[in-house]
Amino acid sequence: MSRAVAEDHSADNTTPYHSMEIGSSLTLGQLLKNVSDVRKVDVGDETPLHSSQGDQDYDDLMRPVPFVLSFNNLTYNVSVRGKFDLIPRRSFSSSKTKTLLDNISGETRDGEILAVLGASGSGKSTLIDALANRIAKGSLKGKVTLNGEPLQSRTLKVISAYVMQDDLLFPMLTVEETLMFAAEFLLPRSLPKSKKKLRVQTLIEQLGIKNAANTIIGDEGHRGISGGERRRVSIGIDIIHDPIVLFLDEPTSGLDSTSAFMVVNVLKKIAESGSIVIMSIHQPSHRVLGLLNRLIFLSRGKTVFSGSPASLPGFFARFGSPVPENENQTEFALDLIRELEGSAGGTRGLVEFNKRWQEMKNLSPPASPNPNLTLKEAISASISRGKLVSGGGGGGGSSVASHGGFANPFWIEIKTLTERSILNSRRQPELFGTRLATVLVTGFILATVFWRLDNSPKGVQERLGFFAFAMSTMFYTCADALPVFLQERYIFVRETAYNAYRRSSYVLSHAVVSLPSLIFLSLAFAATTFWAVGLEGGPMGFLFYCLIIFASFWSGSSFVTFLSGVVPHVMLGYTIVVAILAYFLLFSGFFINRDRIPQYWLWFHYLSLVKYPYEAVLQNEFSDPMECFVRGVQMFDNTPLGQLSYGMKLRLLDSVSRSIGMRITGSTCLTTGADILKQQGVTELSKWSCLLVTVGFGFFFRVLFYLCLLFGSKNKRR
């Protein structure tokens, strides 16, 4: 492939990147801001507008800016603990370390595909992660440079993309919708929607998935596109902004040979457009091998071959193991490496031979491909030629916003995230339908079991049981929110790793999307139980009943959402949710009053999410001072004396009246709602305060969820 050689533009002050007068002190965002003054790009066909000054000037404008990515002596060690060694015993024995990368060096250029090969566990994915800055700072030794300059994390986020091995996509979105949402996230707000659509259509053509553009992605329960098409969509999401460097972790894994060839062929076109493509691959076919430019074979973290595919036969011939005719070269190499790994000496001989081979080639250290440009200037010049779509397209301010942090302001991110979640959920109505059916069935059972309760002492006890069960049911029903984030976790990690949107935007959108369903569920449960059970309060009592049920749903959903950010597995999460909610119910005040709870457990009573809605509905029910719940002879109910005849009870009342000096008849009110609240220990907070505390718990757990995402989703190895 022909490669552009940068020319000395010192005599030509009309070139875009020279006329910007870029100083080394400028930030990347300021450099990209200057690009908008010289770059007017039609995003659809990525053809910059140019004046008719001759074909040579136009060719110079369109020629890709050369980039060379080099990595030297990359070494990565991890500590290995014993199977049951949960606590490191540093004082008794030295910690064991395992070397995943051992002095790995190499380079690749724009227009080329660098493929990393090796058996499982050889370090392929680890090397890709090291180059993509997905290993925590301080753990990785060595140096990664671009055009001879150290590649900073902030710069790499701007100019690169990383395609994970698994296809992490929303199953109910179509191919076009998936790419369009990616465009909304990664392309700046200043770019018109029509140009974003044109960019998506062009990308669909480039990926060869035009026939599947209106087909949903699909999953185990919904038929969608094929595996090869899914892989190309995954690639398309990350190259929507046309990055300069593209990393891929085994993009052909699980695909047949034809699909694998089509995927790598797409990557070849991306490389030829001026990008550096680095990928790991397990065992490429002969056709795929013909598309690759550079190979690195790894064995247990060491380099056993580094060079072009054409030099592979000569390398092994000189090593003493020539590649047989009509045999796949990479298959032979991998088989030989595995055979050596199983021998006594291992691959030590091959590693040493590779070092001598590299010395024989007598390669001098690569110089910068364009000594007249700094890295920042080269990036700006590349943008002016059509790379990094998000870097131009409008005002300079958008460029700074885009490359200094995020492509869009947070309200645009919230709007886009909300639209995507609603669209994906709307096409799975069975999920909300199941949840609604659960609430309605629970409400129907409670309504029929506690049908039209009276104001007798037994009715009071039954009301207390109804409220305790109903309020705890609100929280248990929210457990189905647990898988929602767990299913989206890796999509979230992938998108936020390269600043598609802010974590705070995701948290707010997640909350906004949940509210309509919670409101509907609250009304459904309240309408099913309020009048059927015979609760007090009239219209205002019903309104408060709806509000406290909604607040319970809100705090329960927030609590479960927070746990989903902490616990990585669904079954483990369900176990923890059920256990903690059981503890909340135990300490709510229904089974044991606050005054009877031991002092050393009293703190849990105030942390119980069930306590506050339970106390709120009790006050809503028993707040009427004119309502009486125990009259005269009813004081003997729930006692052995309750079996006596009515006349005998009246005589007992008369005896009690004479003894205490106060007249008590069969209709005398002995217990009001206030007495019941006092008996239950509901004396500290008003019902509106309980409502506010319940709502506040919801916001508190949403903040904790945000902190979990902020500090627990770095997506880097340690």
From TrEMBL:
PROSITE patterns: ABC_TRANSPORTER_1 (PS00211), ABC_TRANSPORTER_2 (PS50893). It is found in: Membrane. Residues 69-325 form the ABC transporter domain. The keyword Transmembrane applies. It holds the Pfam family ABC_tran. Coiled coil: none annotated. InterPro entries: AAA+_ATPase (IPR003593), ABC2_TM (IPR013525), ABC_transporter-like_ATP-bd (IPR003439), ABC_transporter-like_CS (IPR017871), ABCG_transporters (IPR050352), P-loop_NTPase (IPR027417). It comes from Brassica cretica (Mustard). One of its GO terms (molecular function) is ATP binding. The chain crosses the membrane at residues 432-453, 465-486, 507-530, 542-563, 570-592, 691-712. This is ABC transporter domain-containing protein. GO terms for cellular component: membrane. The keyword Transport applies. Belongs to the ABC transporter superfamily. ABCG family. Eye pigment precursor importer (TC 3.A.1.204) subfamily. Its main location: membrane. Signal peptide: none annotated. Keywords: ATP-binding, Membrane, Nucleotide-binding, Transmembrane, Transmembrane helix, Transport. It is a multi-pass membrane protein.
